[in-house]
Each structure stands twice: as C-alpha cells, then as structure tokens.
Design a protein that fits this description.
By secondary structure, this protein is of the alpha/beta class. It has a single domain (4-200), classed as Maf protein, CATH 3.90.950.10. Helices cover 31% and strands 24% of the residues. It is built from five helices and seven strands; from the N terminus they run E-H-E-H-E-H-E-E-E-E-H-H. The longest helix has 18 residues, at 183-200. The protein is globular and about 50 Å long. It starts with a strand and ends with a helix.
C-alpha cells in the first residue's frame, strides 16, 4: 500500500528534514514544494502567525491537490508590544542578517532591565486538505532576551533567547535538545493527533 503523502509548504530542505524528525512516527511520506514542482511563493499578508500559516497551507493544498502543512513562527517581546512578531524574519529590512536583526533588537531594548525583557518564541502550524478543511496547533517557549549573544547552535534570535529553567540561551543548547523543546516541536506534537485522524479518515 502506498503511504499517504504530506506536502510541507517550504522550499527549505532543512525544514523538511526537521519535520521528518518531528513527524517520524506518523504513517505518512513527507515531500516539499520543490519536489512536487511548485515554485510559487504565497505572500504572507495576515496580521497573525495563524492567519499566515492558514494562508500558506490552503493555497498550496489547492495548487498541489495534496494534504499540506505550513507554519509561521517568530519572536514576541513584551517590552516591545509583541514585536518583532510576524515581522521577525524581516525585522531589520530586506537582505539583513541574523546579526543585523539581533543588533536592532538589543538596541530597542537597551534601556529595559533583564527581568522586564520577557519574550516567547511562538509557532502556529496549519494543516489543510485539498477540500478546504483546515486544522491548526500552536507551540511556544517562554524566555528572556539577554544583552549579549551567546552560543554557537541554532539560528535567528536563538543566541539572545535565554531559558531561565536551563540557565542558558537557546543557541547554547545541543541541537537535539533544542529540537525537543522548541516552539515548532511543541506545535508539531499538538498537530499530530489531528493528522492521525485525517490519515485514518
């Protein structure tokens, strides 16, 4: 029997590998946009992570005729009113590096004491069927923004995202530990029961 295929709405092979690990116990074969010949980028015009994830999942499910999983994620800093939020990847403008984004974030928090630098990584996963049904799940990790980057692992804002219960930044965690506790891992755990139901049906 041919396993059901799940399209991961990304052009990024690294993200595909991560989802293969996160969803390894599901009876499903994962593929991604380039592999099924989809080159279009769906614009993220929503005002929340959930809206953006749903936009991508439903658009690619329509294009491909396949069960599709999309996510949207980012960093929310309370002292900045939830910024950078859905703009996390574009926070320092087009073409900016992770270092540029971190520098802008630390400059914005220069006068904020550590205990008031509460923040969270948030991820929303949306799964859409070609018939237009949509399911979502959310994961988050709470932390504080440090005043200097630390650690060699991870990417994005990981070097300044401090986990009080572990006494280190996200970038100081071994990758396998980060992948167990990350916002994407938590959202994936919550979407799995829904995927089980869809695959059974």
């Amino acid at each position: 029997m041919t396993p059901l295929r799940l399209l991961i709405a990304t052009h990024n092979k690294g993200k595909l590998r991560e989802y293969r690990r996160l969803l390894a116990d599901l009876p499903v074969e994962l593929t991604y946009l380039d592999e099924v010949g989809i080159t279009e980028d769906v614009p993220e015009t929503g005002s929340t992570f959930e809206e953006n994830a749903i936009q991508k999942a439903t658009a690619y499910a329509r294009m491909s005729g396949m069960l599709t999983l999309a996510d949207d994620s980012g960093l929310e800093v309370d002292a900045l009113g939830g910024e950078p939020g859905i703009h996390s990847a574009r926070y320092a403008g087009p073409g900016a590096t992770d270092e540029d984004r971190i520098r802008k974030l630390l400059n914005a928090l220069a006068d904020v004491p550590l205990e008031k630098r509460t923040a969270r990584f948030r991820c929303v996963i949306a799964v859409a069927t070609p018939r237009g049904e949509v399911y979502t799940a959310e994961g988050e990790v709470e932390g504080l923004i440090t005043d200097t980057p630390r650690g060699q692992h991870g990417f994005g804002y990981d070097p300044v995202f401090f986990l009080p219960d572990r006494g280190c930044t996200m970038a100081e965690l071994p990758p396998e530990e980060k992948n167990r506790i990350s916002h994407r891992a938590r959202a994936a755990e919550r979407i799995k029961p829904l995927l089980h139901e869809i695959l059974k049906g």
